[in-house]
Amino acid sequence: MQGIEVTGMGLWSVYREREGPANCYKYFGDDLKKPTPHVANGKIEAMAVAIIRDKIANMTLKDILKCRNKLREGIKDEMQKILTGWGIWLETCEIQDVKIASKSLFANLQTEFREDQREKAERINCNTQRDIDFDSMNRRCASQMK
């Protein structure tokens, strides 16, 4: 909804404590015997996408772009609550990239920056012109006094 694209990754393992292994087998069964458990990965990915969308919808754009740790920790905490019941331990959850996918949103965000840069350039031009005029006036005065 905000035109944001988040790329990340997560690493998980079977939760070794209490009923972790039994719950993991109960939810994913023979998929766990495969070198790549596609069913488990797919369910975890779908859950991660839903949680990320919720977190993004409830954060400011500035926080999303600048406070990746806040986003990452929120996602990790929410995911772990659910994954523990599935018998899974989330080893790590990382935000690799946050991109603005909406061209209009990107242009709107750039407006303030561009205006600040334009004003700064205008001030520099005015100061430079003032210095040139001042130097020119000093030279004329000096040449008239000779």
Layout of strands and helices, then pairs:
Elements: E1 4-14, H1 20-28, H2 38-57, H3 61-66, H4 68-86, E2 88-100, H5 103-145
Antiparallel strand pairs: 1-2
Strand percentage lies at 15-25%
Q: Given the structure, what is the number of helices?
A: 5
Q: What is the average of the pLDDT values?
A: 85
Low-confidence stretches: none
Q: Please tell me the CATH architecture of the largest domain by its name.
A: 2-Layer Sandwich
Distance between the termini: 73 Å
Q: Structural class from helices and strands?
A: alpha+beta
Rg is 28 Å
* CATH class label of the largest domain: Alpha Beta
Provide an overview of this structure.
- By secondary structure, the protein is of the alpha+beta class.
- It has two domains: 4-101, Tetrahydropterin Synthase, Chain A; 103-146.
- It is built from five helices and two strands.
- It starts with a strand and ends with a helix.
- It has helices at 20-28, 38-57, 61-66, 68-86, 103-145, and strands at residues 4-14, 88-100.
List keywords for this structure.
Tetrahydropterin Synthase, Chain A; 2 strands; 5 helices; rod-shaped; two-stranded antiparallel sheet; alpha+beta; 2 domains; 146 residues
Summarize the structure.
With about 150 residues, this protein is an alpha+beta fold.
